[in-house]
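Would you mind writing out the residues of a protein together with its fold in token form for me to study?
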Amino acid sequence: MRLSTRLTELAGIRYPIVQTGMGYVSGARLTAATSAAGGLGIIGSATMSMDALRAAVREVRERTGQPFGVNLRADAADAAERVELIIAEKVRVASFALAPKRDLIARLKDAGVIVLPSVGALRHAEKVAGWGADAIVVQGGEGGGHTGPVPTSLLLPQVVSAVDIPVIAAGGYFDGRGLVAALAYGAAGIAMGTRFLLTSDSPVADEVKQAYLTRTLTDTVVTTRVDGVPHRVLRTPFIDRLERAGPAAQLVRSARSAAAFRGLSGLSWPALIRQGAAMRRGTGLSWSQVLMAANTPMLLKAAMVDGRPDLGVMSAGQVVGLIDDLPSCAELIDRIMTEAADCIGRLGGLAQA
């Protein structure tokens, strides 16, 4: 079954399913596999240098001719340069982990790029809609990574009723029943991170994937000790130690992470400081919290790239407790659409009765 929604029409995709941008996870391979299967794959560029991002974009295009996107941080020191790269490479969608400024939205829209911010609160949805965003991803509290306190089942209908642009639901989705439920709330599609991380197309090490597959619905925790803001991750002995660490140990770890990330990203110290200042202005974090935010890329890398879940952080939505296999992206999307068709058929039967 092919579902036509405001999202599929806007992005030119076959199915209303988005694979979210995930650092060290959604590179060229996963993004291309998702888009080739009819969804919207999104490169997670926050942990990439400019050269690495350019290479990833071109590799996706070599692998598939279908639309895809790039996710970036609006508060990054080189956000404007990344926007220019997206425009120059003719990427279809630019998604943002934080609300982009008006000038970035205008620059992208003038170039014909679809602007797709992610939000976790009604006020943020209304703000970016007023600034000209083409669509928004609304993530409820059960979602992985940076998240808020309101569950998707309450946040989604609130936002759908308040804005007139397409809304994509995120947080707790993994199958066709969820897609139909999101559509019933008025969403134009669903976005999934944890479910796409746990596919055979994901580059994450097998031992790390197995660590995810053994978890239950209660095996995630929301912590502020990774980067100073609420972050839903798998509960592990490492996270428990992080929660118990004192302020001095936390700051030392963060300073080391900042130095390591600077080398990995290719940013100079002045650029890294400017990025930190922009983060403070955009989020209201203290300098201590900004320094803690340097933890995230390196702690994610330890688990997702180095295959050491005992030394790193594994972002995960609560939905991890309902996932028990590793299909390809094509198999996953086909399964979701088949389940959605069956679900719609059952509901149609009820209406006739």
Summary: The longest helix spans residues 329-352. Residues 270 and 296 are 20 Å apart (CA to CA). Residues 207-304 form one domain. The radius of gyration is 19 Å.
